Amino acid sequence: MYRDNSLMPKEAVRLVVLGTLIQGGPLRYADLAGAVRHFLDRMMGPSLDLMGTSLEMLRYEGLIEALDGSGMEDNALLGPTETGRVEFDTLMRANVRAPSADGLNKLVIALKLRFLHLLDVESQRDQIDNLVALCETELARLGDLKRANVGSDGHFASWLDRDIAQTEERLAWFQELLARL
């Protein structure tokens, strides 16, 4: 993890793998690899940062295990270990960084929402509270930027208005989700 306790790209991949197995149950090696690749490609597009973690490495680290067979060569059925379940819980509780151009933030938020229901209700509330705070911080940042650029020429102000509106919509959605929990 980064120093601010937020996920690095390889940890986001771990979260996809572990969450997929915990949510859906054991999967064949090829099916798991395909599901992980499909989700990551659709969320972020091709990314060298996300291609480095192999299922074999997660097996070696004791996070997933072959329930039959031995691995890729015989398309083993894979499932999470107890250590993997603990790692999943740790990764789900990680902080979310402020939005960035690399798309990792969007991926981490998507993963939290995809697997949020696997946590206890209090942990779910904590994670949504963190996302609410993230939106509020983002709105403060964007508002400050807008105030600093009042009266400027060009299209920046209207683009900022659009970004602010989207962030306000996200904030309202997270607040509604929190109220439903």
From TrEMBL:
Pfam families: AphA_like. Transmembrane segments: none annotated. It comes from the Bacteria. Keywords: Chaperone. InterPro entries: HscB_C_sf, Put_trans_reg, WH-like_DNA-bd_sf, WH_DNA-bd_sf. Signal peptide: none annotated. This is Alanyl-tRNA synthetase. It comes from Azospirillum melinis.
